[in-house]
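Q: I'm teaching a short session on how sequence maps to structure, and I want students to see two examples side by side rather than one. Could you give me a first protein with its sequence written out and its structure tokens following it? Keep the formatting plain so it prints cleanly on a handout.
A: Of course. Example one:
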Amino acid sequence: QVQLVESGGGLVQAGGSLRLSCAASGLTFSNYAMGWFRQAPGKEREFVAAIATSSSITGYADSVKGRFTISRDNSKNAVYLQMNSLKPEDTAVYYCAARYARWPSVVLKRENEYSYWGQGTQVTVSS
């Protein structure tokens, strides 16, 4: 049974930083492409960042490029999202997602491409 558990959310002032973690179990983590999505109140869930099974290949939404960094540690079955220079508009529930990836260079940016989802962690940025 695949489980994804996010942690690290919280309340932070604008300009601050947070590091989200997603612990995966029940899968061969190194074979899975991973992604982060977020959903703000009253809005649809949107793509934030993704990483291929090859850690050197990543993708970002334009709104977070240069501020957020996605990384993974296959030895710990974990994916991370380092968020710097946070803005009030980054306030949302953040979800991690996983999808088996046949190719090491695959970066998945669409919600419907992912098979497994975590429960989410709340990030609130105050102005």
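Q: Perfect. Now a second example for contrast.
A: Example two:
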Amino acid sequence: QVQLVESGGGLVQAGGSLRLSCAASGRTFSSYGMGWFRQAPGKEREFVAHISWSGGSTYYADSVKGRFTISRDNAKNTVYLQMNSLKPEDTAVYYCAATRQSSLSDYARRSRSVYDYWGQGTQVTVSS
């Protein structure tokens, strides 16, 4: 069992930055691939970024590529999402998620169904 707790959300002006954190419980954090998803009002939850268990591979949605950076610190059981050059369309509840599966295809790692554990989410609001 893994419990995930996100933090770091808030209100920021367009062009600003935020760093989200996701703290995980459990001794096996380093064996999980981790993802960030987001859900805007009235929209489906969508993939944002994924990082492999080692941190050696990262993947991004086209909408955030070049602006967001996912990273992890396995010693601290924490995954991060650094968000720069924020836009109003980035406004959403951001969720972190953990998957026990490895060697995921690009399609799979972007799918909510492969993730076994989810956090409660943290609100990010970007004002124009």
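Q: What should students look for in example two?
A: Point them to this: The first strand starts at residue 4 and ends at 7. Also worth mentioning: The chain has a mean pLDDT of 96.
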